[in-house]
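Hey L., structure's done. Input below.
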Amino acid sequence: MTADVPHETSSSRATDRPGDQSPFALGLLLRRAHWRAQTVMTEALRPLGIELRHFSVLIVLVNRGPTVQRDLAAATGTDKAGIMRVVDDLERKGLAVRKAVPGDRRVRAVEITPQGMELFDAAHVAAEPQARRLVAGLAPGEDAQLVDLLTRFAHPAEDEGAV
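Output:
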């Protein structure tokens, strides 16, 4: 198996430390940044009784309106069983409801409730100081620069070979 793998001793190895120059450095940094942001935002949502997985579904519902579960799963990167559990949780909490889709009685669209909208707005208020804490170590303007760079990285232009 090692005969098939090119061996080049001059390339750096992934270390997951600042200054890592390996080809894995960007992915490792993004993973670490995600964990940090997820931890901080989870703290903001905990007093509201929801988790990030719930909030990610609420974001889709606010942006798209009523959405069928298969589309919610695709939009949030969740599998079919996982999205069912999240929607069950949201229904139990009164934050979303499933409604029949006209023309297909087997399919249900998930819709945010007024209580869900109130919680969605409250989550933004609760997350504001946490979001400021996340970027507190950056120089003025660097937070906007970081958002711009990550946005362009996560949403490459179609003509640039988007993933």
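The first helix runs from residue 25 to 45. Residues 18 and 52 are 28 Å apart (CA to CA).

-- N.
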